[in-house]
Design brief:
The structure holds two protein chains of two kinds.
Chain A: E1 44-50, E2 53-58, H1 64-75, E3 87-91, E4 99-104, H2 107-115, E5 122-127, H3 134-140, H4 145-154, H5 157-160, E6 165-168, H6 178-185, E7 188-191, H7 199-204, H8 211-214, H9 220-226, H10 228-250, E8 251-252, E9 255-256, H11 258-286, H12 295-311, H13 319-339, H14 349-381
Parallel strand pairs in A: 2-3, 4-5, 4-6, 6-7
Antiparallel strand pairs in A: 1-2, 3-5, 8-9
Helix pairs in contact in A: 4-6, 9-11, 10-11, 11-12, 11-13, 12-13, 13-14
Chain B: E1 11-12, H1 22-26, E2 32-35, E3 38-41, H2 52-55, E4 62-63, H3 71-80
Antiparallel strand pairs in B: 1-4, 2-3
The chains are: A alpha/beta, B alpha+beta.
Chain lengths: 385, 98
């Protein structure tokens, strides 16, 4: 899917007055698209007069509610629908010579940008990325050349500013082709720094970014804030795992016995939690210190270490169950750790495909073997073999 | 931090390079350098295949099998078809205006 296929009725823009884009292409079937008469969102503190009419001015401070929104985005699916309206906004008191900064309409992206614009007068051009952040939307193409070209014309940049320069976040470069934007609009795309916090220094240095500003690190702080969204989805799958385990242990020739379900199943429930912890928390946090470049191997190592340590609590295990534990849980951590490739700043598709090519058959076979081992254990327990 | 070695599909056709330096500007992992007015790949294992360099190379000197390095996305594309994408929600074409 690319941004070009989007229906035209999404041409919303918070530019007030005669420039409202509602009468633009696709003028029929409009719903909710006009800002005029609409209630101002809380981050809009006023309006700025410009050559194209009044433009909403945004606050450069984040309210407790904005900050709480960030927490929710980091921990839940709240992030899937956290948007601002696409279009033109103002920070400070911008004029015809002010910079135009481009961002996505994911509210978190928008908030991070305006937070860094204290004391800076600039225009903010928000692309409609369907509420997805710059980096992901650029990969998908919704933060892309077509959408940018469209927004430049909708916001009437040629009337708004006298220069021909727009600052696009560097992480948007995967979707935006600077030379094509230039060809289509005459505007020169200048790629800003990776992090919004470097924008003031970047502008100060006359649009020169240092190598540090251009490269994307992955410090422990960033890895840590990503772990809730690794842990939460896994915990949602956990009840199913727990159910299977309790059923497997509770099932007796006489029916399902709660006593044996909990006695036999409890250690396994713990091992399950430990493998999630190893794959979704320990692996991301300790990432650079765990041997191997492959995430599957890193996860397996952490899973093996934590499973081994947990075995100390339960020293006496039936050898069949012990082999099942040692086979299954480190590989579960390995699989969970592999999911973290989606959150890193440095894993490429070819590499992940390479890992999955050996990983998926291994996970499937080991799960099947684990199930067989459990069945054998049950059959012995029931004195059937 | 580096990912698997020799995995990235990044290719540079030095003959086509005009030496504009755009790849150096957009690469988030600094894998390029200008040497004698030509770009060279100095760190191929640093490439995460985001495609920014190829998309922004006006002379078409760069090629990369662009995609998301995300296991969940790749597994989903195997299971349900389509290109691997960052859209974890599974929902697409949401019909919400503004």
């Amino acid at each position: 899917m690319s941004g070009t296929k989007k229906p035209d009725f999404k041409l919303a823009g918070p530019v007030k007055g005669p420039s409202c884009a509602c009468n633009g292409p696709g003028g029929t079937g409009l719903k909710n698209c006009c800002t005029a008469g609409k209630q101002k969102p809380p981050y809009v503190t006023g309006t700025v007069r410009s050559a194209i009419g009044e433009v909403w001015r945004v606050s450069t401070g984040l309210t407790p509610s904005d900050k709480w929104g960030i927490v929710k985005c980091r921990t839940s699916s709240y992030r899937n629908d956290y948007k601002v309206e696409a279009g033109l906004y103002a920070a400070g008191q911008p004029g015809r010579g002010s910079d135009v900064l481009v961002t996505a309409n994911y509210k978190y992206s928008f908030d991070v940008l305006r937070r860094e614009l204290k004391g800076i007068s600039a225009w903010i051009l928000v692309l409609d990325t369907n509420g997805i952040n710059v980096w992901c939307a650029a990969g998908k193409g919704t933060f892309g050349t077509a959408e940018l070209v469209k927004r430049i014309s909708l916001a009437q940049l040629d009337k708004l500013v006298e220069h021909k320069r727009i600052i696009v976040p560097q992480l948007g470069a995967a979707g935006v082709s600077a030379h094509e934007v230039k060809k289509a609009t005459g505007y020169r795309v200048v790629y800003g720094p990776v992090n919004a916090k470097d924008i003031p220094a970047f502008i100060e240095a006359e649009y020169k970014a240092t190598r540090e500003m251009r490269t994307m690190g992955f410090p422990v702080k960033h890895r840590l804030v990503l772990t809730p969204m690794e842990i939460v989805p896994m915990l949602k799958k956990y009840p199913l795992f727990a159910l299977v385990i309790l059923l497997a242990f509770g099932l007796q020739p006489s029916g399902i016995l709660f006593r044996s379900a909990f006695q036999g199943g409890l250690p396994f429930l713990l091992f399950g939690l430990v493998s999630i912890f190893a794959g979704a928390f320990l692996t991301p946090v300790l990432l650079p210190y765990i041997p191997s470049r492959a995430f599957a191997v890193k996860g397996w190592i952490m899973g093996a270490v934590t499973t081994g340590l947990s075995l100390v609590i339960f020293p006496r295990f039936n050898p069949i169950l012990l082999s099942m534990i040692l086979l299954f849980f480190p590989l579960a951590s390995s699989y969970i750790a592999l999911q973290f490739t989606g959150s890193t700043t440095f894993t490429g598709m070819s590499g992940v495909k390479k890992e999955l090519k050996t990983g998926i058959p291994l996970y499937l076979i080991s799960t099947a073997v684990s199930a067989v081992l459990l069945v054998i254990y049950k059959l012995i327990e029931w004195r059937m073999i | 931090m580096k990912y698997l070695s020799n995995a990235a599909t990044l290719k540079l056709d030095a003959g086509k390079c005009a030496g504009c330096g755009m790849c150096i500007e957009v690469c988030p992992h600094g894998v390029f350098r200008l040497e004698g007015k030509r770009a060279v790949i100095t760190d191929p294992d640093g490439c995460m295949e985001c495609g920014a360099c190829a998309v922004n190379c006006a002379s078409g000197a760069l090629a990369v099998d662009k995609g998301v390095g995300c296991a969940a996305a790749i597994i989903n594309s195997i299971l349900y078809g389509g290109e691997p994408s960052c859209d974890c929600t599974g929902k697409s074409n949401k019909d919400s205006c503004c």
